[in-house]
Amino acid sequence: MKQAAYGLVLYIFLMLPPVTALAESIMAIHMHMQMPLFVIAGMLMTPFFQKKFPNLFSKWNSNGIPGIILFMIIVLYWMLPRTMDEALTIPAVEIFKFVSLPFLAGVPLRDSWKKLETRVKNIIYISLSAIFGFMAWLYIASPNQLCNNYLIVEQKTLGWGFVFLAACIFIYFIQTLFIDETEYE
Amino acid sequence: MEALKNTILEKTNKSLGVNAEDARLTLTYLSLAFIVLFIGGALGLLQGLNRAGLLELPVWLNYYQILTAHGVLLVLVFTTLFMIGYFYASLSHTLGGLLPKVRKMGWVAFGLLVTGVVFVVTTIIMGEASVMYTFYPPMQASPWFYIGLVFLVAGLWVSGIGVFINAASWKKRNRGKHLPLLSYFAVGAFVLTLLGSLGVTAEVLMLIPWAFGWTETINVMLSRTLFWSFGHTIVNVWYLVAVSAWYVTVPKIIGGRLFSDTLARLVVILSVVLNVPGGFHHQIIDPGFTQGLKFMHVFMSLSIALPSLMTAFFMFAVFERAGRKKGAKGLLGWFKKLPWNDVRFLAPMIAMIAFIPAGAGGIAQTNNQLNQVVHNSLWVVGHFHLTLGTTVVLTFFGVMYWLIPYLTKREMTTKINRLGIIQTIVWAVGMLFMSGAMHWVGVLGSPRRTSYTTYGDNATALGWDPYLFFLAIGGSLLFLGVILMVYIVFNLMFFAPKGNTAFPIAEPEDNASVTPRWTERWGLWVIVAIAVISMGYVIPLVDLILNAPPGSPPFKTW
Ligand code: HEM
Ligand SMILES: [Cu+2]
């Protein structure tokens, strides 16, 4: 439960106006720092919800698949250039961001992950790194400004951030194939 | 069968003491380390005397040559040699001997390091590399200087991979067991070293063609940024090496127990994951980064203080418990029960105490406004002679009093203990004078990396002289400390009486909780570290590359 409290503190901190203003002023920080931190805040708060609503999770997310699909949908949605723009200009979308990333992505991710079979986990690793790779290509190669609010050079920076994220996930995935954790335990 | 053989091997190793071949490897590293300390210390003394206006250096060996050699030899070479020697001995002791393959890698690394040092020192003496240990372009050294650096980095890599191989092989043979804590520190320190060396390797590979004249210009800001991703990280590696001795050996020496195995491992993980982007706090005054970015890096930098504060908490808890076990009463009674007259405790203890002002100064200067006051002044030199020159180095000295006798199957005499206490006090007092004077005169505006000058008898500059005089007194005491320490090390190596010295490894408390398994998931931690590094570096690097001004041609300012 201590974790849930930390998650709540992080959640509130991220929503403080000066913090959002600073985080959203740089495109790469908006997408690669603020948004993942919202997801992490949600993951930290998960035990609270699992304790409060045990039936909800066992009924709707018994094998983890619905949860992980919800997670993927939310993540994909927030990767579109258009949604970033709208979060900056339309308050309702900004609020949706504050709600969706922790509670519709972070919570289901943590609840699902332990329930998933290795095969499904592998699919998630591969598709996430592929999607990030595609986003990298999109943001680096696009000759046009994709967001009204961010310059082209920021867009390219974000693209390189995606290169590293895709690489991290992929290397981690490869590592799980070669290093059998149980062998070392 | 294999496992049985290995446990037997480990048992014999523990009762018979160190494997002779492993001991020879470490002793070679340590001997060279202390020879390097002697040379570097002598150069430091010359600098101190020059800055006080007491000594004019000849043209053929000027201040900047000496300063470059002092910096490289002490911050890079001495520390590297010590780390490899110490951790290879730790692996040998805690993992039941080095694998023959790994021992060979240790020797190869030694050869690479020596080659690198020869290149670097030769070019400095020839006056072709007075670029300081930071080798910032557009100052350009001889290409052979940079090639020497490549050898040094290669030596670090080979020794690091050796550590990983030995640890992995132990884990395979000991399923379900945690890597012994000291070896865990070794793995963490080398992972951090390798991560930190990526940027500088890229930088040096750009500098070499530029120094040969194959490329005309160099991206100055990019080079500085890549340098500090390394320079910052490696200093934190030295700190982690010292911390490993505090956690694992000091509690044993004072008759206490390990405070918490989990907490110690968490400190290692946090240090590895959070460290590299801290490099930006060396570039607070650099142009080319936006204000918002610099602001964010203040947090990055402060987050590194977290593991340090955890360490302080841990150590004081250990001291208090050990003191109370010996019957100490009252709030601070345990303080008196500590073995102050045992140099194996006194040296690391003073090292830890020095870290209190050193850490406070560090937290201060990582803030933009305060940094503007002290940037490039002697304050900064005072700061790292406390962190590195005292906290790290005194801990290294403290380790020598048991590590060398352990390796040579000798015993420290009470005479050497007494001499060691004198050495520690000389060092502490010398540093109090030198570093204190540097801090103060730095705030008054005296710049670092500047040989003696009164700026045409300018009144402000003349006002620095009394402080610089104290700096020279401190420097002289420190050199006395260096002589004593080198004497002690070689005395323990060759002349101390034969006997048995144990490798002090603290036991966990009887009611200690089990260490969680996530501490062993290095695959995950390395990936997290890479993710944090890319979060810190992608934005400025892309900006520095895509919006680069035309590069700079070389300059030879000396
Ligand atoms: C005998 C002991 C020592 C003395 C007298 C001494 C003295 C000095 C002085 C006077 C400076 C130059 C200040 C300037 O002009 O900027 C300096 C720089 C430096 N010292 Fe020491 N020092 C000693 C030991 C150490 C040790 C043990 C270390 C590290 C392990 C160390 C690391 C450095 C570094 C990294 C620099 C900066 C070089 C540069 O700015 O490029 N020193 N030292
Ligand atoms: Cu630093």
N- and C-termini, Cα separation of chain A: 28 Å
What do we call the CATH topology of chain B? Cytochrome C Oxidase, Chain A
The proportion of strand residues of chain A reads under 5%
Rg value of chain B? 23 Å
Strand content of chain B: under 5%
> How many domain modules of chain B?
1
Describe this entry's structure for a reader.
The complex is a heterodimer of chains A (185) and B (558). Chain A has nine helices and no strands. Helix content of chain A is 83%, strand content 0%. Chain A is mainly alpha-helical. In chain A, α3 packs across α7. With 558 residues, chain B is mainly alpha-helical. Chain B contains 19 helices and no strands. In chain B, α13 runs parallel beside α16 (414-443). Chains A and B meet through α3 and α9 of A and α10 and α19 of B. The structure holds protoporphyrin IX containing FE (HEM) and copper (II) ion. Copper (II) ion binds at residues 232, 235, 278, 281-282 of chain B. Protoporphyrin IX containing FE binds next to α2, α3, α15 and α18 of chain B.
What is this structure, in a nutshell?
Chain A is mostly helical. Chain A has helices at 2-15, 17-25, 27-52, 54-60, 65-79, 81-89, 91-113, 118-141, 152-178.
Short key terms for the protein model shown above:
heterodimer; A: 185 residues; mainly alpha; 9 helices; 83% helix; B: 558 residues; Cytochrome C Oxidase, Chain A; 19 helices; binds protoporphyrin IX containing FE; binds copper (II) ion
